Amino acid sequence: MSEQVGCRRARRAEARSDEGAATIEYVGMIIAVAVLLVSVIGLFTPMGNDLNRALCGAVGKVVGDSSCAGAGAGAGEDTAGSDLPEKAPPKGPYTTHSDETKIDAGLSISFVDIGGGIVAATEGLSNGTYKVTFVDKARVGVSLSAGEMKAKLKVGDYGGSLGASASFSKAFEGAYAVEYTLNSAQEVADLKEWAAREYGKDVVKTVGGPLNGLNVELISWLVDKIDGYDYKPPEPSAIFAEGSVVIGGKAMAGGILAGGNVEVSGSKGLGARLEPNGNITVYTKTTLDAKVASDLGLVKFTNGSVGTEVVISVTVDKNHDITEVGLSGAATAEGSYNLFMLTGTPSVGSGGKGIGINATFPVTDANRADTIAALARLGVANTVGGTAVSQAAAVPWIMDQARTNGDVSAQTYDVAADNIVNAALGLKAPALGGVGMELDASRTSKTSTGAWYLGRNNTWVEW
Amino acid sequence: MQRRAWGVVLAMIVSAGIAGCGGGDSSSSAAEPSPSVWARPTGSPMTIEPVTTVDGAELFESDGLSVLVPDGWETRRSEQPEFVQIMVLRADDERNPVVLTILAQPGSADVVETTASVASAELAISGATDLEQHPATWSGWRYASGITGVFDQGRDGVVTDFVQVVALSGDGKVVGVTAQAPRGQLDDALSYQVLRSVRPVG
Predict the structure, then answer these.
(1) Which terminus of chain A is less hemmed in, N or C, by CB atoms within 10 Å?
(2) How far is CA A385 from the centre of its chain?
(3) Which whole number is the average pLDDT over A437-457?
(4) What are the Cα distances from residue B55, in Å, to A48, A329, A460, B189?
(5) Contact at 8 Å (CB) between A60 and A84?
(6) Does A209 sit within 8 Å of B19, measured CB to CB?
(7) What is the pLDDT of residues A339-387, one digit of tens each?
(8) Residues A141, A177 contacting (CB under 8 angstroms)
């Protein structure tokens, strides 16, 4: 009996000794292979410090260097009013705060445009949730293929790890932005850290070529094993198709709608947001020409803009039915009078700040035909070209629909940007920065200082 | 346990060695199409049967594609930064051309499906009806996605059936081809034969 106990103790002691040895061996393996990888990559590029920074993104947590990770989440602020208004507030939350953090770690290698890289736009929403949108300005993921790595090698549970890690590149194929909806600041921080690690790996893989990408994945997998890092990102809540895809889609549709004579350009097709439920929202920038602006009593709408620009969003569901139309406009304090004139809404005291107005309404069988006609007048639909007179009629019609059947809201912004139109509309959909509306990550700190919605008596109600 | 771990290391060293011999090419290789689950077509499968001859037609080549141009038809090419368009049309029927749209950026199956989804949304926004997206098979192309529907041209009550195919060539070119004909006549229309004759060159 005592002899059996003695044997079990001896075996346990041996097992503990093995575990310790195994851990040391793992660390040794990582170091050995990392050195090997560095030496191999060194054959291709004179990177030096760049490589260090790239590896930092992949293994930063292990070496205790958090400088590669994205910054923490912006704090949300719930400012929803408690008074009973004449009309229920808009169903969706509004943005209280957003920030953008570059996570390209200053890498300047061939496929990354200097000043480009991935931008993580974090929005704190009024309902306490957050939206994080990774915008890939350099479309890094396109140069990598998750599929080619999947097909190459599978060791242990490495395949499971690959599925998660490959999704960052995968999600960017054909898209330039991925949006996540999260419930807490901690979830935001976790997602950003994951993105930083994935991007670090992507950089190293691309520098070394596809096969070296396998090595990076394997090293990272081993490091994660030792480190206990097992974070799996949530499913994205939306992706944004890149501008060239949207323009291409518009042009192809134009082959049917306008006999190939449709006018499509990057300044018009901003982007498209695709949701898992099959909804697609297409964003189009429309410029009201000078005559329309004059007819509507508009003198000066924004700083630096020749025409009066609004963004029209149209959502189509999986059955190809139009379900919602939106109109967004923004102006500096100086141009706010014209914005209120355009939208036919009473003015809000902006306190010298920029202002944005959003109007949305549902599309049903009752108003579908008129909606398509209005979109055509604005040049959003391809059926007929918009004219000055019909443009002038279309905007008031859309605003009337929103006023009676949908929602109209206004927000004032502290925006550290010269072009408030781009910045404020970017707040509504950060990933619209791809084409036609440059989203400059260096312009940070966009904070909403006030939010209202239009009540039944055409008066603003604090949101 | 330790044996498996060392196996991993061996695999890494081997693959590192392969990489060392493989050069520093960072471009994407030809991955198998893996369409995004969000953009998968839900309609019935569609097969586009290639057409290699049309009576009196001549082969026209441009931008890495070839297409048969029937007698009495002509081609017009236009170019924008994001795409090239080639119209193949009868001179007396400018309203119903076969239109080839070639994206400037190379793509993948996901790009094909996303582009097709955007195109179908655009068609819906402009009032096209009976829209359906189909998984498509088209010999000579790596991947394809089809859209069918009906469009009221609003002129003299002309209503057309149309088909649009977005396809991926072997070298990663994303191409959209459209054809339309009066209701009920598309299958036998010359324009549909022209669409089916489009092939990547090389």
Answers:
(1) N
(2) 31
(3) 52
(4) 64, 55, 69, 14
(5) no
(6) yes
(7) 777 777 777 665 666 677 788 999 999 998 889 888 888 878 765 433 4
(8) no
Instruction: Mark yes or no for CB contact A252/B5 under 8 Å.
Output: no
Residues in A touching B19 (Cβ below 8 Å): 40, 208-209, 211-212, 214-215
Does the distance separating the beta carbons of A215 and B15 come in below 8 Å?
Answer: yes
Provide the pLDDT for residue A200: 60
Closest CA to A420 of A351, A333, A358: A333
Look up residue A436 and give its DSSP letter. Answer: S
CA distances to A36, A49, A171, A210, A341 from A215, rounded to whole Å, are 10, 20, 21, 9, 60
Residue A456, both tokens: 């039944």
| ipTM of predicted complex | 0.82
Tokens of A26: 């793992």
Q: What dihedral do alpha carbons A394, A398, A399, A401 form, nearest 10°?
A: 140
Residue B190 pLDDT > 90, yes or no? yes
Q: Which two tokens stand for residue A332?
A: 């500096």
Asked if residues B170 and B200 have their Cβ atoms less than 8 Å apart, the reply is yes
Closest to A216 in 3D by CA, of A175, A161, A172: A161
B42 or A152: whose pLDDT is higher?
B42
Residue of A nearest to B123 (CA): A253
How far apart, in whole angstroms, are the C-alpha atoms of residue A37 and residue B143? 36
Give B37's contacts in chain A (Cβ within 8 Å): 276
Put simply, the answer to whether B12 touches A282 (Cβ < 8 Å) is no
If you average pLDDT over residues B81-101, what whole number do you get?
Answer: 89
Contact A87, A455 (CB under 8 A): yes
Tell me, what amino acid is at A321?
D
- Residue B145 near chain A (CB below 8 Å): no
Q: pLDDT, tens digit, for every residue of A162-186? A: 333 334 444 444 455 677 889 988 8
B98-134 confidence digits (pLDDT tens): 999 999 888 888 788 888 998 999 999 988 999 999 9
**Locus of tokens 């921080």:** A189
CA distance A445 to A98: 6
